[in-house]
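Hi all, posting the design record for the shared folder.

TITLE: backbone redesign
STEP: 1 of 1
STRUCTURE INPUT:
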């Protein structure tokens, strides 16, 4: 199943994503995994599991040896955004993107991995955009980092992408979804892909300003930040909210049963979502579930 989880901060998105079938390989661009694992659902979802958190180290590759996730139930690759010391020139984003996308491809290809998590796809897309802009900026510098002189004038580094250049960025993100849709586990079941998303304020065209230029106004609504038409690529889209110290998940899309759209789950987990799909399809569709024995998650090892 391909699942989109979207919502504001601290609405249980990462915890829900990591409740999926094991083994899980997660790509933590958002760095919120420790709170998710060690929080209130630790005993229910994570107690007794072998969890490996791998810090990002520039220049290190894990693809030359055996897969680093082979002896763990959950493997999390930390992918913090590079610290920028220059207010204009970007550095480190190309290395970060190549590091993460190569590992992601390896996780998709490994039949032992049941679930791949991208947390968040919002920041993954931003990383890819910054990596592409960094590539364009580098054309203005020599190997020593000095500005090139072109026709007697110093080159002007690019400051931002133009709209048409986001095509390459969006293509890379779409490739993640299409790859997830076509890969199977070793048991023949489809591999699960979970994409976590931030929300952003929706804007609409506003009145013209004094110079005749169009302005934008806030609508008061929240929309998914990132790739447009994301819901086209997923089986289920779930919106998480926090109400009276309880997490609620509303199905914005359910490709298995349109009648389930609008349904609200209280304190959702992957298993409760899978049970809902099974019930809605009269058990014609049975999704993989996290195995639980006496209320404790069973290790996949």
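Okay, here is what came back for every position:
SEQUENCE:
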């Amino acid at each position: 199943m391909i699942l989109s989880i979207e919502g504001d901060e601290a609405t249980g998105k990462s915890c829900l994503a990591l409740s999926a079938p094991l083994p899980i390989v997660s790509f933590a661009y958002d760095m919120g995994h420790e709170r998710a694992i060690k929080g209130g659902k630790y005993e229910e979802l994570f107690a007794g599991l072998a969890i490996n958190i791998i810090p990002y180290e520039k220049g290190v590759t894990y693809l030359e040896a055996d897969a680093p996730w082979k002896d763990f139930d959950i493997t999390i690759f930390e992918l913090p955004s590079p610290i920028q010391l220059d207010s204009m020139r970007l550095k480190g984003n190309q290395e970060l993107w190549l590091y993460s996308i190569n590992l992601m491809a390896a996780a998709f290809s490994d039949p032992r991995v049941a679930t791949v998590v991208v947390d968040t796809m919002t920041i993954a897309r931003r990383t890819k955009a910054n990596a592409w802009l960094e590539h364009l900026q580098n054309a203005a510098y020599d190997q020593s980092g000095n500005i090139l002189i072109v026709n007697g004038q110093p080159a002007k580094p690019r400051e931002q992408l133009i709209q048409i250049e986001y095509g390459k960025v969006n293509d890379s993100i779409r490739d993640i979804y299409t790859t997830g849709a076509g890969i199977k586990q070793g048991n023949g079941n489809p591999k699960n892909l979970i994409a976590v998303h931030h929300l952003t304020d929706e804007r609409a065209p506003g009145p013209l300003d004094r110079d005749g230029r169009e302005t934008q106004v806030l609508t008061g609504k929240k929309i998914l930040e990132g790739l447009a038409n994301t819901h086209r690529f997923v089986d289920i889209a779930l919106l998480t909210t926090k109400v009276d110290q309880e997490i609620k998940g509303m199905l914005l899309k359910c490709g298995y049963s349109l009648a389930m759209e609008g349904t609200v789950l209280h304190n959702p987990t992957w298993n409760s979502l899978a049970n809902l799909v099974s019930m809605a399809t009269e058990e014609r569709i049975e999704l993989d579930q996290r195995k639980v024995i006496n209320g404790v998650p069973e290790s996949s090892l």
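COMMENT: The chain has a mean pLDDT of 91.
Let me know if anyone wants the other runs.
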